[in-house]
Write a structure and sequence with these properties.
The complex is a heterodimer of chains A (274) and B (312). In chain A, 75% of the residues lie in helices and 0% in strands. Chain A is mostly helical and 274 residues long. Chain A has a single domain (54-273), classed as MetI-like fold (Orthogonal Bundle). The two termini of chain A are 42 Å apart. The longest helix of chain B is centred in the N-terminal third of the chain and has 37 residues, at 19-55. Chain B has a single domain (72-311), classed as MetI-like fold. A two-stranded antiparallel sheet of chain B has the order 1-2. In chain B, helix 1 (19-55) packs across helix 12 (280-311) and helix 2 (72-78) packs across helix 12 (280-311). Chain B is mainly alpha-helical and 312 residues long. The two termini of chain B are 16 Å apart. Helix content of chain B is 71%, strand content 2%. The radius of gyration of chain B is 25 Å and the shape is globular. Chain B has helices at 19-55, 72-78, 81-113, 119-131, 134-144, 151-158, 172-199, 204-212, 217-245, 249-254, 266-275, 280-311; strands at 57-59, 65-68. Classes of the chains: A mainly alpha (274), B mainly alpha (312). Chains A and B meet through helix 1, helix 3, helix 4, helix 5 and helix 6 of A and helix 1, helix 3, helix 4, helix 5 and helix 6 of B.
C-alpha cells in the first residue's frame, strides 16, 4: 500500500466523524423540506412521498420573496457603504505617514472588539432618536459601521503588499496622485476589494440580533429574522416549509463559499500573517 | 500589521513639488480616514456614551432618565443571583467553546495540510458551516433536537443507541452542553483557516533536515510544528474568545436562555433585561461590565503580542 493511500485512510478516519456532524444539519434540512405535511411529525427518516412542490408552496407560506429582497438590499447597500469608506482609510494607513495613525488603529481595534450586542441598548436609542426604528436604513448604517474595522484591516494589509514603485513611476510620468491611484493602484487592489466585499456581504446577510431589535414589522424583516419568526413563539410550526426556506436561503452562500474558498482563505491568510 | 515602510516614506518627492501642494498634502490622510471615522464614531461611540449614562441613572422602562443613582444599578446586579450564575455560565461557555474548538482544529489543520485523496472535498466540508448563518444552523438544530419527532432521536434510535426519546432542550443539563457543541462546530472553519495559514508559513526543508537527523513524526510535531504555530494559536484564541463571548443566536434560538434562565449567558441576559423585563438601568450595567471584560482581555492580548515581538 502506498504512503499516500495510508495517509488517505488515516485522514478520513479522523475526518469522518467531524464530517458527519457537519453534514447532519444539511441532511435534516433537505429531508424535512421534502416531507409532505402529514409526514413531518412522524419519526421516520426518509420521506415516503417526496414533495418537491414544498419549495414552491414555501415561497408564499413563509413570505420568502419580500424577506429575500430585504436581505439583498440591506447586505448590498451596507457592503457598498462600508467598502467605500474603508478603501480610502486603508489607503491612508498603508501609504501615508500621519500623526494619530496609532490612535486611529486603536479606535478600529476597539470597534472590532465591541460587538453590536454589547451596544444594543444604545443603538436602539440612537435609532429611535434618528427616527429610523423599523427602517432598513437603520441596519444598513449599523452593519456598515461595524464592518469598517475588519474591512480596513484586511484592505490595508493587502495594500502594503502592492509595490509603491508603480505609483511613483506614474507620478514621474506626470500623473497626479489621484490619477495614479485610479489607473495603477486600484486595478491591482481589486482582488482584495472583492474578498472584502464578500466577507462584509456575508456578515450582513447572516446578522441576527440587530435585525431582531431594530426591525419591528414583517415588511422590513430580513431572511434570518423572517425564518426565526416562523419558529419562535408559535404553537404550530410548519417545519417542512421552515427547512425549505432555510435551505434556499443557505445554498447560494454555501456555493459561493465552496467556489471561492481558496481565494477567501488566501485573502484572509495574507491579512493574518501581517 | 506592518508599518515597515513608514519612516522613510515621503510619499511625494518633495523637491519636485511646490510648497503649497505639500501643505495641502498634509491634510489628505485625515480626509481619507474621515468618512470611516465619522460613521464608526456615530454608530459606536454615541451608543457607548448613552449606555454609560443610563447605567449611572435611575431609568424607567422607556429609557427616560429619572435622576443620578451612582452605582445603584451595579449593586442591584451584584445582588441578583441570576446575574452571578449567568456570569459563571458565560465563563464555562467561552472556555468550553474556545477550548473544544482548539482541541479539534489543530489535528484537523494538520491532516488537511498533508496531501491525501479527497483533500479538496474534505476542505469544502470543513469550511461549510462558515457559509451558513449561525441563526439558520440553530433553527435547524432546534428542529433536529425536537423531543418527539426530531431527527437526532430517530437517528439514535435507528442506530440502537437509545430506545426512548430524549427531550434535549427541556433541561439545562442536556441543552447547555449541546449549545456548546454547536458553538464549537461553527467556530472550527475560521480556526482551521488561521492554522492552515500558519502551517503554510513553515518551510518544508526544516522537516527534511529533521528527518535526515532521524527525528520521528511525533518529535517533529512537538519541536517544529507546534512552536511555529504558536502565534497563530494565540491569534485564534483571542479572536474566538471575543466572538464566542458575544455570541447570541445559538442560545437565543434554541432555548432563549431558558428554562428559567438556566442556559442564559451575559448577552442573552442583557437582551432580556433590556427588551423583556424593561430593566434598562441594569441592562446598561451588564453592557458596561461586558465592555470592561472585553477591554481587559484585549489589553492582555496587546501586551502578550508586544512581549512576543520583543522576544523575537
Amino acid at each position: 500500500m502506498s504512503l499516500k493511500m495510508r495517509r488517505t485512510i488515516i485522514a478520513w478516519a479522523l475526518m469522518g466523524p467531524v464530517a458527519v456532524v457537519i453534514l447532519f444539519p444539511f441532511a435534516v434540512m433537505l429531508i424535512t423540506a421534502l416531507k409532505p405535511a402529514d409526514e413531518v411529525l412522524e419519526p421516520h427518516w426518509w420521506p415516503r412521498n417526496p414533495q418537491w412542490s414544498n419549495f414552491v408552496a414555501m415561497w408564499k407560506a413563509t413570505n420568502f420573496g419580500p424577506a429575500l429582497i430585504n436581505s439583498l438590499l440591506v447586505s448590498g447597500i451596507s457592503t457598498l457603504l462600508a467598502v467605500a469608506v474603508s478603501v480610502p482609510a486603508a489607503y491612508a494607513l498603508a501609504r501615508m505617514p500621519f500623526r494619530g495613525k496609532g490612535a486611529f488603529r486603536q479606535f478600529l481595534l476597539i470597534s472590532q472588539m465591541l460587538s453590536p450586542i454589547v451596544l444594543v441598548l444604545g443603538l436602539f436609542q440612537l435609532v429611535v432618536t434618528l427616527g429610523l426604528l423599523d427602517s432598513k436604513l437603520s441596519i444598513i448604517l449599523v452593519y456598515a459601521a461595524f464592518a469598517i474595522a475588519f474591512a480596513t484591516w484586511l484592505l490595508q494589509s493587502y495594500f502594503t503588499t502592492i509595490p509603491r514603485d508603480l505609483e511613483e513611476a506614474a507620478w514621474i510620468e506626470g500623473a497626479s496622485r489621484a490619477t495614479a491611484i485610479r489607473t495603477v493602484f486600484l486595478p491591482l487592489a481589486l482582488p482584495a476589494v472583492a474578498v472584502t466585499c464578500i466577507f462584509t456581504f456575508v456578515q450582513a446577510w447572516n446578522e441576527f440580533v440587530l435585525a431582531l431589535t431594530l426591525l419591528r414589522s414583517q415588511e422590513s424583516y430580513t431572511l434570518p429574522i423572517q425564518i426565526f419568526s416562523l419558529v419562535a413563539g408559535r404553537y404550530t410550526i410548519e417545519w417542512n416549509y421552515v427547512m425549505a426556506a432555510a435551505l434556499v436561503a443557505t445554498v447560494p452562500v454555501a456555493i459561493v463559499f465552496a467556489v471561492m474558498q481558496r481565494h477567501l482563505v488566501r485573502g484572509l491568510a495574507s491579512g493574518a500573517v501581517k | 500589521m506592518s508599518e515597515g515602510t513608514a519612516p522613510n516614506a515621503a510619499p511625494v518627492p518633495t523637491g519636485a513639488v511646490p510648497r503649497r501642494r505639500h501643505r495641502q498634502g498634509r491634510a489628505v490622510p485625515y480626509l481619507l480616514i474621515l468618512p470611516a471615522f465619522l460613521l464608526a464614531a456615530l454608530i459606536i461611540l454615541w451608543p457607548l456614551a448613552t449606555i454609560t449614562n443610563i447605567s449611572l441613572h435611575d431609568v424607567n422602562r422607556f429609557g427616560q432618565l429619572r435622576g443620578f443613582s451612582g452605582m445603584a444599578n451595579f449593586s442591584e446586579l451584584w445582588r441578583d443571583p441570576d446575574f452571578i450564575a449567568t456570569l459563571w455560565r458565560t465563563l464555562i461557555w467561552t472556555v468550553g467553546v474556545v477550548g473544544g474548538t482548539l482541541i479539534l482544529s489543530v489535528p484537523i489543520a494538520l491532516v488537511l495540510n498533508r496531501d491525501f485523496h479527497g483533500r479538496a472535498l474534505a476542505r469544502v466540508i470543513i469550511m461549510l458551516p462558515w457559509s451558513v448563518s449561525v441563526t439558520m444552523t440553530a433553527v435547524v438544530w432546534r428542529w433536529a433536537l425536537n423531543g418527539e419527532s426530531g431527527m437526532l432521536n430517530s437517528a439514535l434510535r435507528a442506530g440502537g443507541v437509545t430506545d426512548t426519546n430524549i427531550v434535549w432542550l427541556a433541561s439545562a443539563a442536556t441543552a447547555f452542553p449541546i449549545q456548546i457543541g454547536i458553538g464549537i462546530l461553527v467556530s472550527i472553519p475560521f480556526t482551521v483557516t488561521v492554522f492552515l495559514a500558519g502551517l503554510s508559513s513553515v518551510p518544508e526543508d526544516i522537516y527534511e533536515a529533521a528527518s535526515l537527523e532521524g527525528a520521528s513524526d511525533w518529535q517533529q510535531l512537538r519541536t517544529i510544528t507546534l512552536p511555529m504555530l504558536r502565534p497563530f494559536i494565540t491569534l485564534a484564541v483571542v479572536l474566538n474568545v471575543i466572538y464566542v463571548f458575544n455570541s447570541f443566536p445559538i442560545i437565543w434560538v434554541l432555548t432563549q436562555g431558558g428554562p428559567a434562565n438556566t442556559t442564559d449567558i451575559l448577552v442573552t441576559y442583557l437582551y432580556k433585561l433590556a427588551f423583556r423585563f424593561g430593566q434598562m438601568g441594569q441592562a446598561a450595567g451588564v453592557s458596561i461590565i461586558m465592555f470592561a471584560i472585553l477591554m481587559a482581555f484585549t489589553l492582555l492580548y496587546v501586551r502578550l503580542v508586544a512581549k512576543n515581538e520583543a522576544q523575537s
